Amino acid sequence: MLRLFNSLGKKLERFPYAAGKPVTMFTCGPSVYQKAHIGNFRTFAFEDIVVRYLEYLGCTVTRGMNLTDIEDKAIAEARVKGMSVRRLTEHHIREFLGEMKTLKIKVPDYLPRASECVPQAVALIKKLLDMKRAYWRGGNVYFAPLSFPGFGKLYGLDMSRWPATTRRFHRDTYPGMQWNLGDFILWHGYRPRDTVSWESDIGRGRPSWNIQDPSMIAGCFNKTLSVYCGGMDNLFRHHDYTLAVLESVRPFPMARFWLHCHHLHVRGQKMSKSKGNICYSDDLFRQGYDANEVRFFLIYTHYRQELDYSPEALQAASEKLRALRAQVRRLSERAGTGPVRDRGLSRRIEQAFREHMDNDLDVKTAVDALSNVLAGGSPHEARPGEARLAVKTLREIDGVLRVIF
After folding, report:
1. For residue 403, which phi and psi values (nearest 5 degrees)?
2. Which domain holds residue 379?
3. Residues with Cβ < 8 Å from 171, sequence gap 6 or more?
4. Comparing 337 with 129, which gets the higher pLDDT?
């Protein structure tokens, strides 16, 4: 029985699945104003584990991932670099997709870009205006959270803290892990010297980040998602904003399960550009680590726990992976074409993996359990047929982990 920690409700819940059952999933993708660092890829690697494990269980997963290419940060970065926003973001999108391939992260079925979903964003804003949940002010459109029953339910926001006087937040994003207690922007009305804008049914301007994700989700799926994933930082403001927008205009919940991956830290501090402690996968490759080792470091943990990066931590994970691969190699050397009289080893391998992965996708404990089975006496005594079956089971497991073979 697969159990996942649902951020909506803050508890472990049984995830219902069956062979061939369709699962719909949407995940927060990168803001492509800059190159994605390994802290970003921790979340993307976790989301890949979610997809691959559900497929391992027999589900058919259809996944979307948004590419945020017209937020404030992209416009500001393009201005600093003296290039168009499109040229800047195209470069980083190509770079991102290349790194996904290198780290064996499946490319989602849908990769909508915010810049391609402006009509959907405008349509959502028009509905919200008609419902009086959004309003015009100073040429912009804002969403009034108090008009949405249950606002903040995903994070668990204490609405008694909400100020009596209306406050408006004009930027796409704000730094820090705190809430903006006020109305958030949906549409940036055109201003002279704006470099990015569209003519639309609501005038000239551009959609804010807070409407971009809902527009991209709505363009891919018109039903309740089985799973929605993102980084832990999205629990502050962003995902509750997205939920409120979509559930305002659609008569069904946005998602059944919400999964959030914790941050990658560097010696106790979150990896981020503002702190100047960013590390890229290219940096690690230049140090001699391969893609399997980098991927393993990112997934060899529990996704809801902080992961601390240091050269020592990466080296320890690499040594663990090398030891595991050596165990599998020794078993593979015993594999042959003989009959299979005992399936016990294969079952123990599968059970060790499933037991811990079914417990909220605990990859680290699952890998450690696999290693313990392979360190026991029976793998070294397995007959050729039994060893062959055990290796087959390990290959199926590695369809999830993608680091062993």
Report:
1. -135, -10
2. 310-401
3. 72, 185
4. 129
